[in-house]
Amino acid sequence: MGKHKKKPKKDKEKELLEKQLLRTQIVESVSNTIFTTVSIAIAIATAIVAISK
User: Fold this and answer.
1) DSSP 1
2) How far apart are CA 28 and CA 34, in angstroms?
3) Burial 9-26 (b: 16+ CB within 10 A, else e)
4) Residue 16 lies in a domain
5) Residue 7, phi then psi, degrees to nearest 5
6) Is the pLDDT of residue 45 over 60?
7) Does 48 reside within a domain?
8) CA separation for the pair 44, 53 (Å, rounded)
9) Which has the higher per-residue pLDDT, 1 or 48?
10) Which of 25, 34, 46, 52 is the most exposed place for a label (fewest CB within 10 A)?
11) Residue 1: inside a domain, yes or no?
12) What is the pLDDT of residues 5-43, one digit of tens each?
């Protein structure tokens, strides 16, 4: 009772690498969203300045 089959070391390493990859992908996605939002804001500001001249 209560005996658990230990995961091999490679499985643990693979799981950690997958978690790290997922975190990296999330950070990349958030940074791309921020970059896109800033780019759109700059484009809108540029258009407003061009129209007001």
Assistant:
1) -
2) 10
3) eeeeeeeeeeeeeeeeee
4) no
5) -75, 140
6) yes
7) yes
8) 15
9) 48
10) 52
11) no
12) 666 788 899 999 999 999 999 999 999 999 999 999 999
List Cβ neighbours of 7 (8 Å cut-off, separation of 6 or more).
Answer: 15
What number of residues does the chain have? 53
Cα torsion angle, 9, 12, 18, 21, sign: negative
Global model pTM greater than 0.90? no
HEC string of 2-53 equals CCCCCCCHHHHHHHHHHHHHHHHHHHHHHHHHHHHHHHHHHHHHHHHHHHHC
